[in-house]
Amino acid sequence: MPTLQSSPVGFNLLAWSAPISEKMYPMTERLKKIGYDGIECFIDYQDVAAYKQFGEHLRQLGLKSTSVMVMSPEENPASESSKIREQALTRLKEAIDRAQAMGATVVCGPFHSAFATFSRQEPQPDEYARSAEVLHAAGEYAQQANIVLTPEALNRFECYLCNTMAQLEKLVRMADHPNVRAMFDTHHANMEEKRFPDAIRTIAPVLAHVHISENDRGTPGDGHIPWDDTFRTLAEINYSGWMTIEAFSRNDVDFANGINVWREYNDPWDIAENGYKFIKTMQAKYAK
């Protein structure tokens, strides 16, 4: 039976940069020395060759990889426009190609709808239906690449279609594809869920990825996320997927401005070093 200690631990490079490049090599090498099992990278519009090169670097270090992405208003899977939905599917396929070139096994993120794009009304049934149709088609494409898509619920200030695990579970069920699963992010859940155990149990049947993120996006364990509830419940559901730290800074100014990060929370290396120790301590505490 899987235990929390079998869950690999990853670190998202967005703490330093959205674009991947050789400038990230020293970061990946140090993260490997700390003990991380893998690296999570943002998928942008760079050529596939850049991801292949970066993936080869990670393989040489013995690191695995996952990836994260967002959708623009011109690529909104929930849009009324068939042309925009077609562009959304194209974008998802291109992201899958880049993830596959890097050797990633997961593409996560709020790609069920456009980031920070609001209709000024509650989510409508036809929006879920349109998003689910695009996700199903993307799942078909991801299946041949052996990649799992894990859409993410965001807080109310960044998204309206999926804020809670109940909404996300509904959407994933509607997408109805084995390569379309779900992720749980502790930062967003801190704003949107009543109780973490209930939220995790709700998404458990389709859960395939977890972001370990403090309430302020700083070092995990330094804030007020209910970590004991989180790790205890993940152990109860026999979760053994990735536990990846997603934390932000202003190192990449364009990216920081795009997601409303206006100050530094903790130094990225404090987050990486102490966050890793924290996760390993909590995994051991709740190992079965």
UniProtKB/TrEMBL annotation:
Domain Xylose isomerase-like TIM barrel positions: 30-260
Entry-linked InterPro entries: IolE/XylAMocC-like, Xyl_isomerase-like_sf, Xyl_isomerase-like_TIM-brl
Listed name of the protein: Sugar phosphate isomerase/epimerase
One example GO MF annotation: isomerase activity
Keywords for the protein's UniProt record, in alphabetical order: Isomerase
Source organism of the structure: Spirosoma validum
Upper lineage: Bacteria, Pseudomonadati, Bacteroidota, Cytophagia, Cytophagales
Tree of life domain: Bacteria
SUPFAM superfamilies listed in its UniProt record: Xylose isomerase-like
Keyword flag Isomerase: yes
